[in-house]
Amino acid sequence: MKSTRDIILDAAAAKGAVAAADTETKNRALLAMADALIEGADGILAANAADMDAARGSIGEVMLDRLALSRERIEGMAKGIREVAALPDPVGRVLAHVERPNGLVIERTAVPMGVIAIIYESRPNVTADAAALAVKAGSACVLRAGREAHRSASAIVEAMRRGLTAAGLPGTAVNLVEDTSRQSSTELMTASGLVDLLIPRGGAGLIRACVENATVPCIETGTGICHIYVDAAADLEMAVDIVENAKCSRPSVCNACEVCLVHKDAAEKFLPMLRERIGGRVELRLDGRAAGIIDGKRAGERDFDTEFLDYILAVGVVDSLDGAIAHIAEHSTGHSDCIVTADSAAAARFLRDVDSAAVYVNASTRFTDGGEFGLGCEMGISTQKLHARGPMGLAELCTYKYIIRGDGQVR
Amino acid sequence: MKSTRDIILDAAAAKGAVAAADTETKNRALLAMADALIEGADGILAANAADMDAARGSIGEVMLDRLALSRERIEGMAKGIREVAALPDPVGRVLAHVERPNGLVIERTAVPMGVIAIIYESRPNVTADAAALAVKAGSACVLRAGREAHRSASAIVEAMRRGLTAAGLPGTAVNLVEDTSRQSSTELMTASGLVDLLIPRGGAGLIRACVENATVPCIETGTGICHIYVDAAADLEMAVDIVENAKCSRPSVCNACEVCLVHKDAAEKFLPMLRERIGGRVELRLDGRAAGIIDGKRAGERDFDTEFLDYILAVGVVDSLDGAIAHIAEHSTGHSDCIVTADSAAAARFLRDVDSAAVYVNASTRFTDGGEFGLGCEMGISTQKLHARGPMGLAELCTYKYIIRGDGQVR
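Output (structure tokens, whole complex):
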């Protein structure tokens, strides 16, 4: 087994070639990576079958479904890579241009990060998505898949490397960590000077481990305790539509709604409507005041601080807009929060004072997504404030440098 | 003594009021802070005299000079604050605006960080600079001055707080840590969820402590081992001018040049010119090949990895542009590096392949500065790739959020 350190060094050695590759070379490599996935589908499916066999019994049905590949899913991965190839090159964009009175020309220019590490869990398709985005952004990458997806991820990386080398880029532009123990995650987190950006994609435990242990620059992603606040001035039909969509359209994702807060003046009318619409599918966990209006399970101590990722919704009644904002400040993970209201002053207050990556008026939190925001793709949803916030597209996977051209200026 | 934790909590409690303040209120507060410094000059000078008395004997002359305040320096601080007041408000700028086919209007909007912590050393004027920038960027701040500057910083903060409250902002928008032991730095580094951004401004030891211990988002600043590479195709008179300026105009700052590399074809002619120009003032530490051309001290093992901040310059001869780029990749701190050349292809290679915050062609590295780059001010020079790189102005002290306005959209 190759050591994690050596794999990181491989990526560091390859980063210069990826950074120096022009747009055409990178796109040719991406298209070849997509083709190689299709051509290598049998091998990838065999590896995935082995992963599935090994995992059955030890992980649940939802996780098994995330792990499973099919010919269609492999085609989906290839299609995703081709879409990344079609996006504009984020590298080399001049973000700011200034000519100084002394004649210096200063350009703030987007450049690659260098080495991007991504730690993820059981979905093998993340392997292809993450590698494609890193290559397009001009960076080498080091991927660490969850143990149960390792054979699948390995087969996918082998195929993609054939595409990379066919286009003249080093295969080691894309690397998969071989050690699937916790040790390899720790090595990625502490590879100071070698890993330029670490993106943990996973549960709260992984994110916490990164915050506590990482010495490399790190972007936290994904934990979403998203709120919808139904204001006194809300259109209640619209509010029910939005809560239903945000809760039920895909409960397992981070932009799904976990908490519904209702203004006390709207609660008597809104809560029965909500129960009528989603009560059959969704377990409502009610605070004391909501339980005084509709039937349902009483919320436990942790229910307003839990990312259910399931057909469960915590429901509470608040006295005012301020009460809703204060509740969100205390309980939100800073992902996506929404107000439903026809009152533009209330909307403006909520938008200003709720300190989350995405703040909504009158729309479902489910839109927090790189594709839906028009970025064309995403590496994840950042819930931190430094560098990238919300969906991270290609631009957010780059850094910049200042390029200064003179003709002998001194200070 | 108030605990560091309580001081951080004060800042967290004040951040909402600073974030919600409009441009006029913030500017009024800044002008009142400047006035209060002038009005409180006697008290500040008395506190500074006490700091100077206590420090004499235990710190050197250079540090004593950094610590010293005078009526002129206080006026300089006030002038700096007024200049920040005159800059455009960075908060609320719409960085991107998109209308989606479904009618959603999505705006990526600059918003305040929240609580910014700054750890610095002996220069009391940083207290005023940092506080002014934080307030203008809509954030509360927690300052931790070096022990030897604590009385001065405390008097400056007291004066600025009078200005803040006169303008209707909470005095706790600007806070100074009272505990001057190492413990308070550690508390700032680990105040997860309370400190949104930590900026260490100081020596390599402080930066390393942050990298190793910080659990809050952190921007490394300031260590500058800056290189000037004199290419085979350089105008040698220009090269001497640039090296002289970058080394001698202010050797104690991070954008001063510490290493000069010369192409072997230019060395025979250039090195005698360099020695002639600066050899009387600057100790040249020569690698073996340079020592074969001019007289001077032989470089020791660490001389190409040392931020001298003094009249010392490491000088080496390289075989090629590639050799220079490789040397810089190994030894640079990623701050500012320069090529002097008339060969545009060599310049383009250098600009692309040198991975530093600022890369120059034919100009002194001393220009890496917020004012010189046209940012109007700066909080420091970032040498990391995440969020901010190079001089950090008001824009880099903000984060952004996505504001999404709909009329009932669901996904």
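Residues 4-20 of chain A form the longest helix (17 residues).
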